[in-house]
Each structure stands twice: as C-alpha cells, then as structure tokens.
Design a protein that fits this description.
This protein is α/β, with parallel strands linked by helices. It is built from three helices and nine strands, in the order βαβαβββαββββ. Strands 4-3-2-5-6-7 form a six-stranded mixed sheet, sandwiched between helices. The structure holds inosinic acid and magnesium ion.
Length: 180
C-alpha cells in the first residue's frame, strides 16, 4: 500500500499528538459530566479508539453510519441514516467523533438529528478539517489538524474502500484515481 502514496502528510506520531491534545481538552471541558461519544462510521473508527483513550472521564460510546445519496458523480447532498445509534440521547451531552469535515453536510445532518431528539448539547470533534471545502455552515468544536483541500487517504480515510488501515494520512498517487 505504501507504494500507492505520493506523500505522507501526517505521521502516526503527529496524529497521536493531536489525539492527546484534544483528549486533554475534552477531559477538561466535561469535568463531572458523562458524555456520550458517538463515532461516525466507518472513517472515524481509528480516531475514536485513539482519542477516547486520552479522555479521562466516565463516558458512553456508540456508533452511527450515514451516507449521502448518490446522484451521479457528485453526491446530491441528501443524507441517509444507514445505521442508527442504540443510545437514548435525550438530556445527554453528545460528542461526535469524525475523521474529516469536508463540505460539512454529514455533520450538519447528524447535529440536526440529535438536536431533534433532545440531546442536551451536541459538540463535534474532528481529527481533520478542510475549511476551504465547506458548503454548509457548520463548525467543529475540536479540530486536530487543518488540512489542505486535497484528497487524502489513511487513518480511516478511504479511496473506494481501500487505505483506511494505513497508520498515517497521505496523498494518493494521482495515477490511481485518474479513472475515478
Ligand atoms: P462532508 O459531508 O462533505 O463533510 O463529508 C465528510 C465525509 O466525506 C468524511 O467523513 C469522509 O468519509 C469523506 N471525505 C471527505 N474528504 C475526504 C478525503 O480527502 N478522503 C477520503 N474521504 C473524504
Ligand atoms: Mg466518513
């Protein structure tokens, strides 16, 4: 797999430092609370397992999966709930864990769903943020890394299902997606 990567943008070590910093911040901000931490499948699984081990609080974990309807080459922006959480969120302080925020549509949708279910608070923690790609007005409360508006893979991010299990984040050799 390494041969498919043009350049490593964020090493395993840099990602770990970001997890540590955000975990400490969340620990501080949620003192005496028991947040419900929801990982957004599938991309966030690596970040979810790493960051939660740096959060020194009692917490619950859950997972949710959403996808955008495919209406041609670019997504229509309409979201579909593929797998729901099992938890009752009413009155809970929720923290979403995301791999990356791009257009912001996923996050906007997820926040609206949980607010409509009467969560007490809904915050978002993302490892990566592409502010330049934003199409809807949504902001993350915790951001690990501001990343350039390029297509990235690794540490949860995929290209056609591949590369999620790379331990770092990199840019894909463009020859590999020229036939996209
Ligand atoms: P949004 O709804 O446009 O913000 O999309 C967020 C989702 O798009 C992320 O959770 C990723 O699954 C995917 N995504 C965005 N940028 C990239 C990328 O550079 N590589 C791989 N997947 C990405
Ligand atoms: Mg995702």
């Amino acid at each position: 797999m390494d041969n498919d990567i043009l350049k490593v943008l964020y090493s395993k070590d840099e990602i770990d430092q970001a997890c540590k910093r955000l975990g400490a911040q969340i620990t501080k901000d949620y003192q005496n609370e028991k947040p419900l931490v929801i990982g957004v499948l599938k991309g966030a699984i690596y970040f979810m397992t790493d960051i939660t081990r740096y959060i020194d609080l009692y917490l619950d974990i859950d997972f949710i999966d959403v996808s955008s309807y495919n209406g041609g080459t670019t997504s229509s922006g309409e979201m579909k709930l593929v797998q729901d959480i099992q938890s009752d969120v009413s009155g809970r302080n929720v923290i979403f864990i995301e791999d990356i925020i791009d257009t912001g549509r996923t996050l906007k949708y997820l926040k609206d769903v949980l607010i409509s279910r009467n969560a007490k608070s809904v915050k978002v923690c993302t490892l990566m943020d592409k502010p330049e790609a934003r199409l809807v007005d949504v902001k993350a409360d915790y951001v690990g890394l501001d990343v350039p508006n390029e297509f990235l893979v690794g540490y949860g991010l995929d290209f056609m299902g591949k590369y999620r299990n790379l331990p770092y984040v990199g840019a894909l050799n463009s020859e590999l997606y020229s036939d996209k």
